[in-house]
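Our example copied in:
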Amino acid sequence: MAKLYFHYSTMNAGKSTLLLQAAHNYHEMGMQTYLLTADFDTRAGEGQIGSRIGIAQPADVYGKDDNLFDMIANRLDKGPIACVMVDEAQWMSRDQVWQVARAVDDMHVPVMCYGLRVDFRGELFPGSATLLALADEMREVRTICHCGKKATMVIRKDEQGRAMTDGNQVQVGGNETYVSLCRRHWREAVEGGRDR
């Protein structure tokens, strides 16, 4: 039975690595997957899902106005797929999450979404909030704070390395921009950023 999965975490937990490993496992068994990523995330190259450990695979890209149900249906018209995998799923709109959920229900294809749960302000992304509401199964991908506790939050750093407390919710970046922290150290970093 097909399901909608949400694999969530904070930055640098290995979500893209897990996605690419799962795709590899399907391919080793002779099954095809359909990989999707947001059009503005070009860190690994245009139309690529990449991991910090150096592996990558081509993916179709979608924009904020694309209908993911239609994209999946068009891909299925070209041949069977065992699974749809969406990287950086937090950037899907609420409607796009409903579209992938409909693909699960109506086309009976599993959809695995990988993304952040909260932004640098500690607020849910719209895509993540909708996935938390609709997913059949959710799996936390764990990473650690510098103190050794589980990291559940992320800060965005300014040019001086201080925690930012405002700005656009979406800003593509990696280790140079974001740091994963436990809630306590996130709070301390954010409260220190508000004092400045």
User: Anything to note?
Assistant: DSSP finds five helices and ten strands in the chain. Residues 15-28 form the longest helix (14 residues). The domain at 4-142 is CATH 3.40.50.300 (Rossmann fold).
